[in-house]
Amino acid sequence: MSRTRTIEQPWQRWLIRLGVFIAMAILCVPGLWVVLTAFRPNIEILARPPVWIPERWTLDNFQRLFGLTANQQGLPVAQYFINSLVISLTSTAVAIFVGMAGGYAFARYRFKGKGALFLGFMLSRTVPGVALSLPLFVLWSRIGLIDTQFGLILVYMAINIPFTIWLTDGFFRQIPADLSEAAQIDGCTRWQAFWKVEFPLARSGLASAAIFAFLTSWNEYALASQLTRTTASKTMPVGLMDFTAQFTVDWTGMSAMAVLIIIPALVLTYIVQKHLIAGLTFGGVKG
Predict the structure, then answer these.
(1) pTM, 2 dp
(2) Which domains does the chain have, with CATH numbers?
(3) Tens of pLDDT, residues 136-161
(4) How far apart are the first and last CA of the chain?
(5) What is the per-residue pLDDT across 251-279, written as a single tens digit (0 to 9) for each?
(6) How far apart are CA 61 and CA 252, in angstroms?
(7) Residues 270/273/274/275 CA torsion (nearest 10 deg)
(8) Is residue 156 a contact partner of residue 217, using CB atoms and an 8 Å limit?
(9) SS in 3 state form for 228-247?
């Protein structure tokens, strides 16, 4: 019995592209509004009807952010940025190192309790961060980790490592084990076979895992707002609350800082885009 193959018509492809474009445009509207608000005067924020394109583009919001205007005290944005960068990069580096080792172990070795342990890692990801904020606050306050960068790094490591193990496990499973065995037959040690054969093949997947881990740490707010108190440990998302008062909100200043939060994520994505474009399908053939 022959199977009929459906031929996709040109109009169907264009309809799919149009649908994807409309969906992406809708998703990008909030981000576009934030960026435009960062460059508009405050008087346009509550205008009716809304003013989409600023009638007067200005950098005053960024100048006020850094205290560059007269009689205007800036915020410690530089310290917030350093805190976020140190916390995000450190937690990401540790999560990738541990996650790569854990994912490789799950993909290549058999050991007792492997399935239960892997399931435990995955179940830990089902707990929302907000539900962990109170227990973590009580525990961290007792051991003296409240308002410290190290305390946040530990939290983000615990969040990112299970997810990274799950991703890297899938990446290494797509690499034939025969490649490592062939390298060892040719004289490589187990460690050399990993670094010279398997790691290069999984590099694109590890870059994807690093992006997820970094963005999770960089954008996280719920836990950071509970575990930080002073400028020494506050991150950029927590710093956004400095623009709120009892009865007012400085929307333009908040939008300007939000743009500063977005830029590093875009830069990092651009740097590793060739690895992301390469895809997550690996393999090889030994001749």
Answers:
(1) 0.83
(2) 10-65 (no CATH), 77-277 (1.10.3720.10)
(3) 999 999 999 999 999 999 999 999 99
(4) 38
(5) 888 889 999 999 888 888 787 777 666 54
(6) 6
(7) 130
(8) yes
(9) CCCCCCCCHHHHHHHHECCC
